[in-house]
Amino acid sequence: MQKIISGSQVKELDKLYVQVSGITPYQLMERAANEFCHWFTANFKKDKTINVYCGTGNNGGDGLAIARLLADQGYFVNVATIGNREKGSTDFIKNLKVLPSSIPISNWRDLKPSEIIIDAIFGVGINRPLEGEYLELIRRLNEENGVKISVDLPSGLPSDTPADGEVFHAAHTVSFQFPKLSLLFPEHAKYVGQLLVKDIGMEQKHFDAFPSEQYFFSGESLAAYHKKFHVFSHKGDFGRIILAGGSYGKMGSICLSTKASLRTGSGLVFCKIPGCGVNIVQTTIPEAMVLAPSLEMDIDTNIELTGIDAIGVGPGLGKGENAQKLVHYILENYAGPTVLDADAINILGEHSDWLPLLHANVVLTPHLKEFERLIGERSDNHLQRIKLAKAFCMEHKCCLVLKGAFSLISFPDGSQVFNNSGTVYMATGGSGDVLTGMLTSFLGQGYTMKNAAICAVFHHGDAGELAGDKLRRGTLASDIVENIPQSFLAWDIE
């Protein structure tokens, strides 16, 4: 799991790394440029014209190295610089000296538009809005039609805070070793495009000197987060869980959660649903058992909690009187692992006096709007949401998964994990219900809260990627469910 540090710490990290590794800063820059070029050459043909725009700092040095390496492989590359070359950073000047004479280099004003634009103007050092000729250049590039690629950060974007002013609009951003925090903000999607994080050889021990409670998870050592079962394990060992939800016209939600929990490995799944959903669930999912009121159509609080390993409540539940009673009853009477999703979160948001009932075994899984209802505060600033999620979990000693691209998992100890799996094709009704079933399943199987959250969120995104690769915009939530076993197989999870 990769630690995320602030942009202001990057230079110190680089300095520390070259000291302990025995390489030079120039060699580290060369390593980053090679990683960029490996990705680039796998995705772009040599018949495209390329303009590389370089500032005079280390990001510009990366750009010069990239231009040289691409030219060596047969690409037609032009370089344009902005700023005083003679006052550039040490490694910028070094890369400028070794740039082959075959690569045209000019002032940015003299360069004609190209089919591919590589932005290496500013990196993590920028801390104020663009102005002067830098602003003029970025505005011009944003109006051009070429494929736009940023090196480490889109120029004009601060590394840790929301954008303030004009920013380069990249279709792809190739960052090194770890994503800078601002690359993970939803409001910056139009600047970042597709985010790729390339490993340049730094290990976690090199980050130990830099305090941070934020991490980026891309599946490293995923198997270590999973629980292992032996040959004599039986269905009881794989957990007895209850999934509570569903209402007239919304039974699909609880069906998706139930299927997902079974595909994730639950041994026994009981569905607490209203009477109107009995035939639907028993016909659709014969492996599930139904707990329903004998006479009433609405869900009720008649539920036996003894012997249950985990509960998930909320998908399709509605916010009626009985639904509210059920949420309150579970929070008040069940101390085991509990997942609150969808309407359970909305109900909790309307009853803030119930918040003291949250405990260390509770995990909430809101999307952005549900999070606002829960917190009682609206914000279009993701940095603020990150802080609010951390404070909420530390205060109420619970876990929270803020769903979306790079879903954020916050823990009661203040640590936070951004998840790096998933695809835009998961933006379809029912995807969150699938996550509820997966998370409840892992908790029921005896995973710790941390491991359950990390595994559920990662495999949920990965299964979505597998489905999206085949079906694109046609991906359904049920397709995510069907790809859960394939995700386990892909990561060698038994």
From TrEMBL:
It comes from Cyclobacterium qasimii. (6S)-NADPHX binds at residues 58-62, 123-129, 134, 152, 316, 367, 433. The keyword Isomerase applies. This is Bifunctional NAD(P)H-hydrate repair enzyme. Belongs to the NnrD/CARKD family. AMP binds at K403, G404, A405, F406, S407, G432. The keyword ATP-binding applies. Gene3D superfamilies: 3.40.1190.20, YjeF N-terminal domain. Residues 10-208 form the YjeF N-terminal domain.
